[in-house]
């Protein structure tokens, strides 16, 4: 997995790219933890907002389009078909 963390217009944001098919849910938790400056275990359970198994299944194939966006731990998370995970602070 590769990642980028930075700020843009005062927002914390991160993008990660993961290769393994089964790690989408893990990549989400890791990316949010990185932006939040904490450990993955300090975050609430991902299953409080999305089914991790379903998220992994959505990105298990060779998708060429689409994305999933949801709020998690105060951040807006978007997973693209190319398995890029983007994290920005949520406005909610």
Description:
The protein has 92 residues and is of the alpha+beta class. It has one domain (2-89). 22% of the residues lie in helices and 35% in strands. A five-stranded antiparallel sheet has the order 1-2-5-4-3, with helices on one face. A hairpin with a 2-residue loop joins strand 3 (67-72) and strand 4 (75-80). The chain starts with a strand and ends with a strand. Residues 1-9 have low confidence and may be disordered.
Query: Alpha-carbon distance between the termini?
Result: 29 Å
List the domain count as a whole number.
1
**Total number of beta strands:** 5
What is the typical, i.e. mean, pLDDT? Answer: 81
Number of H- or I-type helical stretches: 2
Radius of gyration: 12 Å
In terms of DSSP E residues, the strand content is 25-35%
- The portion of residues assigned to helices is 10-25%
| Helix-strand sequence | EEHHEEE
Low-confidence stretches: 1-9
Morphology: globular
What strand order characterises the main sheet? 1-2-5-4-3
Largest sheet: 5 strands, antiparallel
Any chance you could write out the topology, listing elements then pairs?
Elements lengths: L1 E7 L2 E7 L6 H13 L15 H7 L8 E6 L2 E6 L3 E6 L3
Antiparallel strand pairs: 1-2, 2-5, 3-4, 4-5
Would you kindly provide a brief summary of this structure?
The protein is of the alpha+beta class. The chain is 22% helix and 35% strand. It has one domain (2-89).
């Amino acid at each position: 997995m590769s990642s980028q963390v930075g700020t843009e217009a005062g927002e914390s944001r991160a993008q990660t790219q993961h290769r393994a098919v089964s790690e989408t849910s893990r990549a989400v938790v890791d990316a949010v933890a990185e932006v939040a400056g904490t450990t993955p275990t300090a975050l609430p359970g991902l299953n409080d907002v999305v089914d991790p198994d379903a998220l992994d299944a959505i990105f298990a194939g060779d998708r060429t389009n689409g994305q999933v966006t949801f709020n998690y731990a105060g951040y807006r998370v978007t997973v693209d078909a190319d398995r890029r995970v983007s994290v920005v602070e949520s406005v909610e």
